[in-house]
Amino acid sequence: MTENILGTIAGILTSISMLPQLIKVLKENNVEDLSALMLIILIIGLSFWVWYGILKNEWPIIISNGFAVIVDVCLLISLWKYKAKYIR
């Protein structure tokens, strides 16, 4: 297996890893078990990967981590949106 194929498979799997969580949150409007700190740390780390990909001009790194950032930001927004309904 070439390193490009390996990197592409790894990028796809890691970038879609949080999609099931996002889908569940959006269906159930329930964020009780989500950790804001974990999401913030993950978004920062993924953003650094995007930056690294830009510096190296590596599109697989940029695209896969950029997609993961978007998914995780959606989760964080959902956390803030739906958490408010539990506070009231």
From TrEMBL:
Q: Kindly report the protein's main subcellular placement as a broad class.
A: membrane
What Gene Ontology terms describe where this protein resides (cellular component)? membrane
- Which controlled-vocabulary keywords does the entry list? Membrane, Transmembrane, Transmembrane helix
A molecular function annotated in GO for this UniProt entry is: sugar transmembrane transporter activity
For this protein, the parts annotated as crossing the membrane are 6-23, 35-55, 61-80
Could you name the domain of life of the organism this protein comes from?
Answer: Bacteria
- What protein is this chain from? SemiSWEET transporter
